[in-house]
Design brief:
Length: 180
Amino acid sequence: MGRIGQVPWNKGRTGVYSEEALARFSQVQKNRTPEHQQKLNDAKKGSIPWNKGRVGVFHHSEATKLKISQSTKGEGGNNWKGGITPENKLGRTSVEYKGWQTAVFQKDNFTCQVCSQYNGYLHADHIKPYAEHLELRYDVNNGRTLCRACHYYVTFKRKMPTGSRWGLRLTNGVFNAASS
């Protein structure tokens, strides 16, 4: 809807189709069988799905599904980078890292060392950075327990935004405490 007193852009214009195109459209309309017209009308009303009767258009055979699955794994996959997972990621998912994390929580009695929050979503934080100090990665004395908000503040030097999901992990469609 235009502003008051403003002339619409298409006022006074006739159709954009040529006479030939209009003649073709009308011919197509005339050649439709009653059954075809009924199907179109039903589809417009929403009584039948648009793809009813189209067999196999969106469905793969089991053999094709297997081929697709195999082509996306290993060396043929999109994310293949030569079989090298970054050392940082491997270390943070190791059993040794999980043991270090638990030992840090126990050392600090499951309490945030900044705001004294007990339990909740806690993170084991490296005092000296994990990536820079290889020799201190699993040293319990290089770790401290922080709640999510304090860990965010220590990491980014600002308050954690309201509603932030930072530090939470999505598992089975639910955000849970992350192990960082």
